Amino acid sequence: MKALVYTNPLEVQLLDRPEPDLVAGEVVLRIDAVGICGSDMHAYHGHDPRRKPGLVLGHEFCGTVVKSAAPGFAQGLRVTGNPLITCGVCDYCVQGRNNLCSRRTMVGMTRPGAFAEYMSIPAASLINMPQDMSPVHAALTEPAATALHAVNMSMKAMARPLPENRTLILGGGAIGMLAALLLKNYGARGTVLAEVNPLRRHSAEQHAGVETYDPRETQPEENGFDYVIDAVGSKVTRVAALNAVKPGGVVMHIGLQDWASEIDMRKLTLAEITLMGTYTYTTADLRATVKLLHEGAFGDLSWVQSFSLAEGAQAFADLDSGRLASSKVVLLP
């Protein structure tokens, strides 16, 4: 089969790889669509020691079952899935918080991913989807569920309902864009989004109806927002988020561009800021997100761009250079 392989920093190549073997409890999927995630780009830049050259990346997928060694998943069934492979028996898994499973492994990191014609995955990780759903839309389940998980967690900490909050989103990548679309569906008004890429700013204005600004030229209003989403996670955005949030407000930290940096702990303490971190999603989030995507809660998704798998190297290069207006690229094997 053909697979897009991470071979060196700033290099992916379309290579021949053996088709995956079928093992007990798993299925083999023919990949119908797979998104390029920010973590794939992080690996592409050589910044993720967990993802080493020679690996097939890709974990935002939709596929069709071609071989099955698990009951309930017949050949021809179209599915998406949870790329986190969890143990199912630890405290976190039985509490329904399987994203925190300490034994978790991951498609496209600890085992070959979905930038390929075929991929194997445990059947327990599969998520049912409407069989008439667009594969491109279904491949957005994983990043959209990340946004949903973060926003839903945040609402538990807000002093007032979400529509009453003034919101700032730092970063117009896929998570920032999907969060803006979800906030719009939840009734939020007056959302502001910061993004350095002018093409992405225009796309966010057009499709999510948000106000945007270039953070290299404009600083957010100090103490101006009830709710701030940091979808970048750099030293600069962490400082900006704490500066922009009002006393008593909520900062949701999603992005992980920088591994560590200082923040304004004095303001966090004296202004009673709620700082929250979030990691991916639960299986329940994924199931809810499939339904929301299919119902149009994230809009028509016309801003998403598609490339063939053979064009994958060019897609990575275009994303890296900022030549694309879309913050989400989906490859079609």
Any overview of this molecule?
The protein is an alpha/beta fold and 333 residues long. It has two domains: 2-140 and 304-332, Quinone Oxidoreductase, Chain A, domain 1 (Alpha-Beta Complex); 147-277, NAD(P)-binding Rossmann-like Domain (Rossmann fold, 3-Layer(aba) Sandwich), CATH 3.40.50. 28% of the residues lie in helices and 26% in strands. The protein has ten helices and 18 strands. Strands 3, 5, 6, 9, 10, 17 and 18 form a seven-stranded mixed sheet that branches. Strands 13-12-11-14-15-16 form a six-stranded parallel sheet, sandwiched between helices. A three-stranded antiparallel sheet has the order 2-1-4, with helices on one face. A hairpin with a 2-residue loop joins strand 1 (2-8) and strand 2 (11-16). Helix 4 crosses helix 5 (174-185) and helix 4 (141-155) crosses helix 9. The model has no long low-confidence stretch (mean pLDDT 96).
- What percentage of residues falls in helices of 4 or more residues? 25-40%
Distance N terminus to C terminus? 10 Å
Number of domains: 2
Strand content: 25-35%
Tally of helical runs: 10
Shape: globular
Strand segment tally: 18
Structural class: alpha/beta
Order of helices and strands: EEEHEEEEHEEEHHEHEHEEHEHEHEHE
The first-level CATH class of the largest domain is given as: Alpha Beta
Keywords:
single chain; 333 residues; alpha/beta; Quinone Oxidoreductase, Chain A, domain 1; Rossmann fold; 2 domains; 7-stranded mixed sheet; 6-stranded parallel sheet; 18 strands
